Amino acid sequence: MSDIVQVNMILVPDMVQLDLTGPFEVLARVPGWQVELVASSLAPVRTDRGLTILPTVTRDTAGPADILVVPGGTGIDTAMVDPDWVRFAHDQAINAKYVFGICTGSFLLAAAGLLTGRRAGAHWQARDLLARFGAIPSHERMVVDGKYYTSGGVTSGIDMALRVVGDVAGKEVAQKIQLQIEYDPQPPFPGGTPFTSPPQIVDAVSLASAQRRATREKLVEQAVAAMRPASGR
Q1: pLDDT above 90 coverage of the chain, percent
Q2: Three-state SS for 17?
Q3: In 3-state terms, what secondary structure has residue 52?
Q4: Which of 14, 47, 112, 198 could lock 75 by a disulfide, CB 3.0 to 4.6 Å apart?
Q5: For residue 233, what pLDDT is reported?
Q6: How many Cα atoms are found within 13 Å in the side-chain-facing hemisphere of 233?
Q7: Catalytic: 103?
Q8: What is the pLDDT of residue 231?
Q9: Going along the chain, which residue ranges are E strands?
Q10: Angle at 69 between CA 68 and CA 74, to 5 degrees
Q11: DSSP string of 153-196?
Q12: Which domains does the chain have, with CATH numbers?
């Protein structure tokens, strides 16, 4: 890897902004790392809760990535059935040294045939669907299989970004960044996973997102049907 480490972060409409901005805050602090936000055009991109982010490059102008980062959200559900995004993710990931999927960002990687036979994580309400792509779903918050780093929910992107920095630039660099951003999470309530939250909370959240789950399942089936041949490990 050269002295300058190129980090390309995929940016699509209706993605979860913290999936991108959390890891960005970590990755952009590493000396010698250049971070680009890659979109289909240079127009502002509106995330799922209304925050607008400006891309820095397009798919056509982005250079090869040393580290490819894929956030999650409903926008990624759409991207995994978009041949242009699937092709871009595949081509970037194949040549990258490290590939980092946050939350349901792993679904775009899976749709590109990159996670077949690999362990991978995703949001708890979706991770079982990874099996339809031939991946092996994991309940772990952070999952590493070869050069592929995938993480569970939205906030796990910060954890995994620190893990990536530690593995690439060294533990001390990661620890300095962790201190710079004073990352010492202490949630006000127990829970945060389906295994640690009260059953009535899990049931309520599952019920409220039932329609989104149904829509995602249909898009997964489309993506599986169109999936390009899996490339070598």
Answers
A1: 94
A2: helix
A3: strand
A4: 14
A5: 40
A6: 8
A7: yes
A8: 45
A9: 5-10, 33-39, 45-46, 52-53, 57-58, 67-70, 98-102, 119-120, 136-137, 142-145, 148-151
A10: 135
A11: SSTHHHHHHHHHHHHHH-HHHHHHHHHHTT-----SSS-SSTTT
A12: 5-226 (3.40.50.880)
**Distance in angstroms (rounded) separating the CA atoms of residues 19 and 21:** 6
Q: Which two tokens stand for residue 24?
A: 């960005």
Annotated active-site residue in 103, 110, 111, 143: 103
Query: 36, 57 in Cβ contact below 8 A?
Result: yes
Helix %, strand %, coil % of the chain (to 5): 40, 20, 40
Per-residue pLDDT reduced to its tens digit, 130-155: 999 999 999 999 999 999 999 998 89
Task: Please identify every stretch of the chain with a pLDDT value under 70, giving residue numbers as ranges.
Answer: 1-2, 228-233
Tokens for 220? 């997964």
Beta-bridged to residue 164, according to DSSP, are none
CA distance 190 to 139: 18
